[in-house]
């Protein structure tokens, strides 16, 4: 079994080297979709909501993977050649003050408008009501993930690491949404 895993990892790294943007986009889509399948199963749905899974996979493929790809490339340009704890702290702070609020806002809007198909007014009110607590919770958790990512992950694996953790984070959100929708 470990030979199969080693070979798959080697092929993944090859694709990441040859086609970084495409590989990160596909990986993000698969992770978001898998997270939603798990969240739906945990919430007790009898039949998987395939449309929801596909729309979330689209989010990962079209937005999350590419956004992460370009964010981490930009961070390396901004902090070119600089290393150490101070640089890592600056990267984490910059990410938490810019992309973290944007990503949470964008995901809430996408989920409400596209995935759930709710009208603008309902989505706007839900975002207005829930966004502050979601962002504050994110700021309690994501700086640690960011620190680990910038300190220990090579550039080509940062999006994978971030999206893997995000799939767990989103899974909790989606499970909660599923419980609300299914009750």
Automatic annotation (TrEMBL):
Transmembrane segments: 53-71
Main location: membrane
Entry keyword set: Membrane, Transmembrane, Transmembrane helix
Top-level lineage group: Eukaryota
Bilayer disposition of the protein: Multi-pass membrane protein
GO terms under cellular component: cytoplasm; membrane
Keyword Membrane in record: yes
Protein localization: Membrane
Stored Pfam families: Mpv17_PMP22 (PF04117)
Signal peptide from the UniProt entry: none
Similarity comment: family membership: Belongs to the peroxisomal membrane protein PXMP2/4 family.
Annotated protein name in UniProt: Peroxisomal membrane protein PMP22 isoform X2
Organism: Nicotiana sylvestris
Taxonomy of the source species: Eukaryota, Viridiplantae, Streptophyta, Embryophyta, Tracheophyta
Gene field: LOC104233637
